[in-house]
Amino acid sequence: MTTLAQNLPGQNEQANTQSLGALPSIEYDLIRAHVFASLVTLVISVLFGILVAAKFSFPEFLGGHGWLTWGRLRYNHTQGIFFGWLGNAFLAFFYYVVPRLANRPVLSRRLGWLLFVIWNFGVVLPGWVLVAAGFSQPLEWAEFPLVVDAFVVLAFILMVFEFVLPFLKARLSDLYVSAWYIIGGIIFTMLAYPVGNLVPELVPGARGAAFSGLWIHDAVGLFVTPFAAAIAYYVIPATTRRAIFSHFLSMVGFWLLFFTYPLNGTHHYVYSAIPMAAQKGAIVASVYLGIAVILVVTNWLLSLRGSSGTVSKDVPLRFVWFGVLSYLVVSLQGSVQALMPVNRFIHFTDWVIGHSHLAMIGFASFIALGGIAHLWQRTPGTRYNERMMNWSFWLLAIGLTLMVADLTIAGLVEAEVWQSSAPWIDSVRAVGSYWLVRTLSGLPILAGFLLFWISLVTGPKLSEATKSETSSEASESVVAFENASPVSDKLSSTGWLSYAYVVAFGAGVGFFALSFLVLAILPGKELEEEVKRVAPVTMPMLTASEQRGRVVYGRDGCAYCHTQQVRSLAADVRRFGAPTEPWETKYDYPQLWGTRRIGPDLSREFNLHPRDWQLAHLYNPRLVVRDSVMPPYPWLFDGSPSQPTQEGLDVLAYIQSLGRARQLSGFDRQMLAASVLPGTSDMAMAGEPSARATPPNVPIAMTGGYSFSAPVLHASSDSADLLEEVSRGGTLFAANCASCHGSDGTGDGKASASLLPKPANITAARFSDERLSSVLWNGVAGSAMPPWRQLPTEDLRALVAYIHSLHVPGAAPSTHDVKTLDEGKSLFAANCASCHGDTGAGDGPTAGALAPSPTNFRLKKPTQGRAWDVLENGVPGTAMPSWQSQLSADQRRALVEFVRSLYGPPQENSRQ
Amino acid sequence: MINLIVILISAIMLALLLVWWRWPAFRAWIEAPKYSMLRQEHRFDDQ
Predict the structure, then answer these.
(1) Minimal CA–CA distance to A159: which of A122, A124, A108, A226?
(2) Which ipTM score applies to this complex?
């Protein structure tokens, strides 16, 4: 058979797919081994995923040990899918397809087994174990620790020998597009992997994030997509027995994908501190990528034209077809969500999680399943069970559709709440039911994968199996091509075309290098200069304890729910303070910016929540935040929140250090003069990033620390409105306050046992509006009471109304005789005034050094019983001692009466 | 940055389209692999 390639000048001596002799051998044992490994790791990874999803609805579930905590399972879920499932599935397909495309066997059977062992027992298994044991890297798609990364790189080097070398040896002039994708995917992932996994450990903060962003997209664009595309380009013509629509289009798509995918990376950090030029470049590249994908998918669908019958009959092809459609949808979705007007809304929400599941299951996994089923049917001794396979397809398609739709809607709901002034926890409450549906949607997906596995092992026995139905059919398109007039003579003057592949390969490496240059190295240089110019000279480094806490924070996946980057968006700034400056993370190795928010951003946590609150929250978040879905971390404590281990103290120290450098540096002093108004526009749109350092209006709301600008909140004077306020306040109290103060306000909530001082019994005192406003706005220094100024003012006002309604009789001012009051007065002056002040206003000479501050009896008026109780027992956790042994009962009684005389007339009490 | 990306991609695409449009021999050359892939698949199927 004479071929086009043989007719090319200078090609006659070259091997090609037709010259040919014996067929190259195929390593079917390795195929079976990798298929088996892929399915085992797939099922385990999906189980990890279901557990991760279930913990949103049942956060205590399997929450008692670090090995099974949400963060570590989350790392193992995605890395298991990436390396275990997809990696093994792709490798199985390479062993099937490389000998066919190169007309040569893979380099070595022994090397193949070595690769199998390294991939599964040097990467996947130790990666899982190490992550579960707490050794990981808190970087998206790079969670396996560095020691495992070394084996990944080694595996890719071996892949070059095993799979790329046969193509080079064959010196084919007509390299099919699947081969291009395999070669490109192996080489470029081998180059990108160390950059994405190692560089963020060496380059801090924003600069490191620029590299992380590249890898996040390279993992999909240089590993997952090329290999899935290679399978689709192979299975479609091999099943339909007809050549693909256009090899030219496929090559255009190939180069566009390899050029634009790496340039997309920074679209994960839109509105961040990374220079705007890099962000906008990534956005433009994302749009180009959408165009490239339209080209690729059009080519695939045109290759399937007239084959609808085959698609419906042939399950592997149907898997691939579904993957093709998913690829179109997910890619266009990706292009759109990179655009600033969309990104500002949906970024960090569940929308993006839906997007990534559509990519990894709908596109990559469906095509990988199609590829495995296709080769299984053509592997000696194996056939699949068609009925099971069919069920597997439908279960997967239904489960995935439900999951993606659910997460997409959940993302929109979260985004809507985040844009409003509603408290953060409202967004968690709002999507609770969506998270439950998401977990349930994982069940048909798991069942689908299990059925796929079962279908492979329950197929007809070899003796019953028949040859592929279409194996002997002549391909119409091949015949047509053979009969067409030869074009070789027209190519007689095109000797340079034989070098086109070399040129193209050089261009590919150039594109790849360009992406690192324009999206990481140049922006990094700019960031470095900005940090040098702007960073406060006094910026403190983390202490040893904080540094250790940072490691724990990273290993347990905290950064996967809490970002540490306030974006240059009004909605972000209103909630969390001024946008993150590059210098704030200049000591962060690796950066912990995060790409998802389930909990609030933590970059301004310094001074925001008191120590006891943080410890109770870490021990069991629901002790202090009733509807929190955060996992508990009991292994950081010795049995109770008041007994943190060293690791617990380290995490506490790290969390409380976040935002400290910025707050102490005075960087925002001038900006605190104004607060962000609801209509404030997004700053990044207005100008280049240098603008960040000058004008952002920092809200007082979430920057932590004491604010003197607390508004005085008054309950409504209209009785109907007051009733409504009290009712709403009760709901708010139950949701936000009852976990500490108890459902009836007596201070005996779930968290009270672990807090010192104990939460206030708010039924045992009458509070002035001024006092309540101050406490709600600023919290109580030295206690676990945090500020609540993130709640809307109307809600705070309702809380004030509700707390007033809890008041019990007994706090009326003293009416005792003058003698008793005089005795009390002198006792007060001798024993109490140094803290509480001469007039009981809490402003004695030592008051400034005490936290909590001594009570101001004009603003907080304890009942007689409460006052007596305090004198008898003191207030543990504060400077207030017991006076039982120092004062007689009569003296204490006199003191109680005197203190009550300080309250002022009753009519003053309600409105101060 | 944006200009660089747009110009580079546009230039490459234009050049490819121009070659494809002006040079039929290129079309045949670039399409050949899709047939050889199928031929090879036949060889394996007939094994």
Answers:
(1) A108
(2) 0.95
Question: Is A14 among the domain residues?
Answer: no
Cβ within 8 Å of residue A46, ≥6 positions away:
A81, A442, A445, A446, A449
A517 falls within a domain = no
pLDDT exceeds cutoff 90 at A495: no
Inter-chain touch B4–A101, beta carbons under 8 Å: no
- Residue A186: per-residue pLDDT: 95
Determine, yes or no, domain membership for A276.
yes
Among A288, A472, A494, the residue with its CB nearest the CB of B25 is A494
- The DSSP 8-state label assigned to residue A397 in this structure reads H
Q: Does B22 touch chain A (CB under 8 A)?
A: no
Query: What integer pLDDT is reported at residue A291 of this predicted model?
Result: 92
In this structure, the answer to whether residues A560 and A677 fall within a common structural domain is yes
Contact call for B33 and A177, based on CB within 8 A: yes
> How many other β-carbons are positioned within 10 Å of the β-carbon of residue A358?
24
DSSP letters, A715-780, are --SSHHHHHHHHHHHHHHHHHHTHHHH-TTSSS--GGGGG-SSPPP-TTSEEE-HHHHHHHHHH--
Which of these three, A652, A675, A693, is where a domain ends? A693
CA distance A343 to A350: 13
The answer as to whether A488 is a domain residue is: no
Which residues of chain B make contact with A174, given a CB cutoff of 8 A?
32-33, 36
pLDDT digits (tens, 9 = 90+) for A26-71: 999 999 999 999 999 999 999 999 999 999 999 999 988 999 999 9
Could you say which of A246, A255, A478 has the minimum Cβ distance to residue B35? A478
How many separate domains does chain A show?
4
Q: Is A842 left (phi over 0), alpha (psi -120 to 50) or beta?
A: left
Using the beta-carbon criterion (under 8 Å), do B38 and A278 form an inter-chain contact? no
Domain chopping of chain B, boundaries: 2-46
Six token digits for residue A892: 């204490």
Specify whether A679 is located in the same domain as A755. no
Same domain, A621 and A731: no
CB contact under 8 A, A490 and B24: yes
For A764, the domain range is 719-805
| Confidence at residue A707, expressed as pLDDT on a 0 to 100 scale | 58
Residues of chain B positioned with their CB less than 8 A from the CB of A280: 1-2
What residues of A are in contact with residue B7 (Cβ under 8 Å)?
A: none
Same domain for A552 and A454? no
Is A16 a residue whose pLDDT tops 50? no
What is the distance in angstroms between the Cα of A217 and the nearest Cα belonging to chain B? Answer: 17
Has residue A802 got a pLDDT over 50?
yes
What CATH number does residue A858 fall under? 1.10.760.10
What CATH number has the domain bearing residue A201? 1.20.210.10
Single residue among A408, A427, A460 that ends a domain in this structure: A460
Average pLDDT across chain A, whole number: 87
Concatenated DSSP letters of A612-647: HHHHHHHH-GGGTSTT--PPP-GGGBSSSTTSB-HH
- Higher-confidence residue: A251 or A509? A251
Q: How far away is chain A from the Cα of B15, in angstroms, using its nearest Cα?
A: 11
Q: Does this model's pTM top 0.90?
A: no
A772 shares its domain with A863: no
| Pair A675, A724 in one domain | no
Above 70 in pLDDT, residue A611?
yes
- Does B39 contact chain A (CB < 8 Å)? yes
Q: Which helix (H) or strand (E) holds A862?
A: strand A860-862
Is residue A800 domain-shared with residue A861, that is, in the same domain?
A: no
Residues of B within 8 A of A472 (CB-CB) are 45-46
pLDDT digits (tens, 9 = 90+) for B5-44: 788 888 888 988 899 899 888 899 899 999 999 999 999 8
Nearest by CB: A237 against B24, B38, B47: B38
Q: How far apart are CA A527 and CA A207, in angstroms?
A: 7
Is the domain of A615 the same as that of A732?
Answer: no
- The pair of structure tokens assigned to A871 is 């004198």
